[in-house]
Amino acid sequence: MSIVHDFKVKNAKGDDVSLSNYKGKVVLIVNVASECGFTPQYEGLQKLHEQFSGRGFEVLGFPCNQFGGQEPGTNDEIQGFCTGRFGVRFPVFAKIDVNGGHADPLYAHLKHEAPGILGTEGIKWNFTKFLVGKDGQVIKRYAPNDKPEAIVKDIETAISSS
Q1: In this structure, what CATH number is given to the domain that contains residue 133?
Q2: Tens digits of per-residue pLDDT, 131-142?
Q3: Which domain holds residue 108?
């Protein structure tokens, strides 16, 4: 059985990053977009990063253009937007697909491990979130309209668990 730590992803420069680098940390994985109604959640995600990064927590952003074309920029443009507009200091990786035949293998795994409403696996929109435990197991999936601050208790519980 796979865990999140078994996957490799591309950073914004196109280099491979092993998610095994996050072993022992609680991770919140989010498909993000720059031109979405939920884009202001970057602010809340950055606050979570600031609040918990010293306690073994990371936010990982994965830009995706599959929902209404709301992430049209290049990886460099996306990085500039995130840091310039929202002061994002958590990792924002290379743009990926989260659904369909070209879905990133990480997202295929996340969707399988934590299906959405009525057991559907597809990601419905930008800013769907997955909380992953220190052991690389998916703990919970959150809908796009679940604000980052609503996840605080679940993050605290995951950080506190052994």
Answers
A1: 3.40.30.10
A2: 999 999 999 999
A3: 4-160
